[in-house]
Specification:
By secondary structure, the protein is α+β, with helices and mostly antiparallel strands. The protein has helices at about 10-20, 65-70, 105-110, 155-160, 165-170, and strands spanning about 5, 20-25, 35-40, 45-50, 55-60, 75-80, 90-100, 125-135. About 30% of the residues are buried.
């Protein structure tokens, strides 16, 4: 049976933080719009900010559907599955916001991700999610799968880019500045990446 949680703490927080990947789901308001579902990985790119707020780093890719949907309506669901150990699925339904590089909050948010070299992955934004509903369910049908290691392909590809060339890369993609459904996506040109706060 599913259980509703008031906050992200204790065993629930531990479970979320131990997972090597999670999924995000968003959709535009229009009934003809495209629902988007994305896998997220990369060790250290997710953080629990407080007991009702989480955040993750949004890296370079070939589209910006999540950003576009959040800019339009803010709705988002995050999901974690237990692929090892006891079965479990956790969903956080909430309101999300993309915090871009030129936002005054951006440098402080980077401080929640000390294990990630922010200059190597084409960092576009920090997605901050405030939970409205936190639930877990059994996950009995989720298969066992083992984690080997993070792929190095992403950092290998985007570590070669500086802010200017990364902005040109985004401008050359059809669904970065504008979503599949024509919604505003990543604002371009891309602002320079600020330095993270001193630890």
């Amino acid at each position: 049976m599913g259980k509703t949680h008031e906050r992200i703490d204790g065993r629930l927080r531990t479970f979320i933080e131990e997972q090597h990947m999670f999924f995000t789901a968003t959709a535009p308001l229009g009934e003809e719009g495209t629902v988007n579902l994305s896998p997220k990985g990369m060790s250290g790119s997710f953080a629990v900010v407080d007991d009702r707020t989480v955040a993750y780093l949004d890296f370079a890719g070939s589209n910006a559907e999540t950003i576009a949907h959040l800019r339009e309506n803010g709705r988002i669901t995050l999901m974690w599955c237990a692929f090892q150990g006891p079965p479990n699925i956790v969903r956080v339904h909430g309101r999300g916001e993309p915090v871009f590089r030129d936002d005054p909050r951006f440098p402080a948010l980077l401080g929640h991700f000390p294990a990630v070299d922010h200059t190597r992955h084409g960092l576009r934004a920090v997605i901050v999610v405030t939970a409205d509903l936190i639930r877990d369910t059994c996950g009995y049908a989720v298969p066992f799968m083992s984690y080997d290691e993070d792929r190095s392909l992403h950092s290998g590809r985007f570590a070669r880019e500086d802010d200017e060339s990364l902005s040109r890369y985004f401008e050359g993609k059809a669904h970065i500045a504008t979503s599949i459904d024509g919604l505003p996506g990543l604002p371009l040109p891309l602002p320079a990446l600020p330095s993270p706060p001193a630890g």
